[in-house]
């Protein structure tokens, strides 16, 4: 009996998604509050986000991460033990970072949950003892990744593409951690955990008129701080394609990353064409890169493309871990597939599948409280049109093959790419040299070095 050909189901009509709009008000200190009532379930979520621009930490890199780890480890208004005990009793969750706080609870505990979030976020109790503990954890993590090829690759992709002095290119070292004092943590918090760039999104079984005075009472005394903000020059892509090689003698695989930097805002007309192009290139199992490197050649468990977007400079990274002996061949195939997305229109099937994937994920998430909060926040912080998410499905469906091709040419800058490879130089450099692509060598901290010499 002849096997029937499998065909992907034809997508039906796109669903209509009703995204609730928040009721908003702004405190005198600048905090913007967005409240979305949803009485389907007896739950409430609180999301406090501080939308600060990125900043470099220099020889004290790790200060902001330590600040993140320390917020929530006790407050001047309630002990760490009592805080955790009360959270457990209510069955609530509360998390903090140096630029956010998140909480969720049953609606009957909503007022107390918000109080505890405010205590932890606005009156943290930083101590030397807790700082020493968190430093020790970070140092232990750094040492455990000392010979990790994937960890080195993740660090070097950012360091080389953005620059080591750029906020997105800095990385933590034991030396930078040693420079950080308790006073640095307190100063970092005071300068950056500020209300004028802050948004509090409240979603769930709550009434606007009841929660508004509670927010005003808890957050009204949060003081503005006018801290100076540094403007950093955008990183520049290399003038011609080059290989940046980092030798790790113990590597059993090569980590390959093809990277460009650029600016792509969510409110730009290129946003949806670019993310769809990225998905077709390396975003799904049937993507160009995965079907080539994994399915056709069997060189890897997977190949992917990740595209960034937002207010600040970001990058696109196509990456995979491959066997040592095919590193040079994999580079050729990366280039081949990126050239393809830049020179050939995608098929109708590829375009429709990519659209259906994005629409499906959007529909699944759109009703969730955390998504409603994020959409409300994005609309404010990314300067999006008020109807951006209402028109999300329509905008995706309007993307054409020509749009995808144009976006791929604009953002996948193959002729100005860094091909960053972390691997065993002794085994892979001879093959790479035959590609006639300039090779520059770096150590695992991004410092230029001479070509390694092998016995």
Instruction: Provide the residue-averaged pLDDT.
Output: 93
In the CATH hierarchy, what is the superfamily of the largest domain?
Metalloenzyme, LuxS/M16 peptidase-like
Domain module count: 2
Cα separation of the termini: 60 Å
The succession of helices and strands, N to C, reads EEEHHEEHHHHHEHEEHHEEHHHHHEHEE
Backbone shape: globular
Low-pLDDT residue spans: none
Number of H- or I-type helical stretches: 16
- Indicate the structural class: alpha+beta
- Tell me the CATH architecture of the largest domain: 2-Layer Sandwich
Structural overview:
Residues 33-163 form the Peptidase M16 N-terminal domain. It comes from Flavobacterium palustre. It holds the Pfam family Peptidase_M16. InterPro entries: Metalloenz_LuxS/M16, MPP/UQCRC_Complex, Pept_M16_N, Peptidase_M16_C. Residues 179-357 form the Peptidase M16 C-terminal domain. With 455 residues, the chain is of the alpha+beta class. The chain folds into two domains: 23-219, 2-Layer Sandwich (Cytochrome Bc1 Complex, Chain A, domain 1), CATH 3.30.830.10; 242-449, Cytochrome Bc1 Complex, Chain A, domain 1, CATH 3.30.830.10. The chain contains 16 helices and 13 strands. It has helices at residues 63-70, 80-90, 110-122, 128-144, 149-162, 174-178, 182-192, 208-219, 271-282, 288-296, 327-343, 348-366, 369-381, 392-397, 401-411, 425-433; strands at 23-26, 32-37, 43-50, 93-97, 100-106, 198-204, 242-247, 253-262, 303-307, 314-323, 418-423, 439-442, 448-449. The strands form two sheets. The chain has a seven-stranded mixed β-sheet, sandwiched between helices. Strand 12 and strand 13 form a beta hairpin. The model has no long low-confidence stretch (mean pLDDT 93).
